Fold these 3 entries.
Entry 1:
Amino acid sequence: MAAFTVSMSALVGAPVKARAVVARKAVQQRGARIVVRAEGEDAKADSFAGLKPTKAADFKSMSNDELNAQIVEAKKMLFELRMKQSTRKEYKGHHFGILKTKIAQIRTVKREREVTEGVNKRDSRKIKREERAANIYL
């Protein structure tokens, strides 16, 4: 069964009845199911396609700047997932756990490095506050 993709820009402004007619004709002619996507939605779906569980060992070879960049990227993806969830778009719920675990692993690696350098908990929190002031996504 083939999928018949209809662009949202083609249907914007059209009455509901006209949209239903387009859908019925597509199903009758092709015997296909209808998938309606917004413009540019395919690119965002691809960013979640390669999302797989990670291990803390994957992050130990990275520098602190790279770790911060990874945290920012993961938090932005979490935000996109929450937006998909709230707007009732299609999403995979297990991606929440994968991203939260990834962030926790990165933070653990950062804290382990601080412990080996001899940074106590109070100073660690101070460093974290300063990093957040510089970048709101941390």
Note: Residues 82 and 96 are 9 Å apart (CA to CA).
Entry 2:
Amino acid sequence: MRLPYVDPAVIESTATGNATAIVERVRQCRHPRPLQPLDLALLHSPPFADGWNSFIGTVRSSLTLTDDIREIAICRVAITNGAWYEWGHHAPLAAASGLTEDGMRTLALEQLPRDSAQIGLTEKQLAVARYTDAMTAQVTVPDDLFVKLKSFFSDQEVVEITGTVAAYNCVSRFLVALDVGERNGPKPF
């Protein structure tokens, strides 16, 4: 990491009550796991860490998207941006959501295949992956990709997919810029 990781005990022993409460909220988000390298980077600014965890926590756990759709979007952002720390955390969640080995191999490709035959993703899942790639790499989404996505999802789901892609582009850029987890850079697999 390009900055030293924060020692939460130092924050808790030297900070005002608000910073201590923030560290505790971050711990509760991770429970039963310990604080992660991302948390230890974010806690350089407790108010930023607090807002981050609230926003990203909502994206992860309060939307109507199915687990496979959410994790496909997050994994494609990670691949496109070279955020291997993010991939390492979300690829197992994608697999657990029911994606096949072929589907996981497809998600890990730098470029999605043009032909959708035997890639391990449904047309609906592939639409999410392609939409994510366009949002992440070009920002502007071509009309045909949007129409394809919209053919599978409600307006609410389109907003949630778009918000998830946007949120995890934020996450990946933070991770890569600071090299959180020391696993970013060239593709490790």
Note: The chain has a mean pLDDT of 91.
Entry 3:
Amino acid sequence: MVEMNGGVGVRARSCGGGGGGEGCWRLVDELSSSRGGSSCAAAAAAAAAESEYVRRFHRHELRENQCSSTLFKHIKAPVHLVWSLVRRFDQPQKYKPFVSRCVVRGDLEIGSVREVDVKSGLPATTSTERLELLDDNEHILSIKIVGGDHRLKNYSSVLSVHPETIDGRPGTLVIESFVVDVPDGNTKDETCFFVEAFIKCNLKSLADVSERLAAQDQTEPIGW
């Protein structure tokens, strides 16, 4: 089955359970639309590369009553530009539309904690998040939510960016995966759907901002 949803591909969804849990898989592929109708061979090669990225960087250990999902976004902007936005743990509002304010406690380094204010109208007002990994060589960002007035308990995510070619020009593949507890009163599918909706909005906004900057030939400065 192939389905499209908001321009962001959800390649795999899994639900935790005893002994590894049952798997709930949805196959979604936006390759042909983002690359202007790639050949079957090119699409297969790209899918194999994506699977390898997931194997290397997006493996989560699921506990009972947790769910996980992996989302993909192809962006028509070079990887260094996209990464310059993603790596700003201190300024997620540069592309995340639901963030109104962010304050980092102390020095900005691995283990740093940020206090994020969420825009009104959402089922939360604050989120406290810790920087778990920032790798400028592999282009990987990982965070863990450690507090806030929301229901995302034991939430952690990994976001990686990878160079690719789109329509003969430098592009970027963004992969974001997460694992989170399923709240009481919700199913695993409901929980995954809710989180995926936020991530899809973030990734669409990241694409919009990155592609606009690319058109203006601008890059966010690297560095804290």
Note: Residues 1-6, 18-35 have pLDDT under 50 and may be disordered.
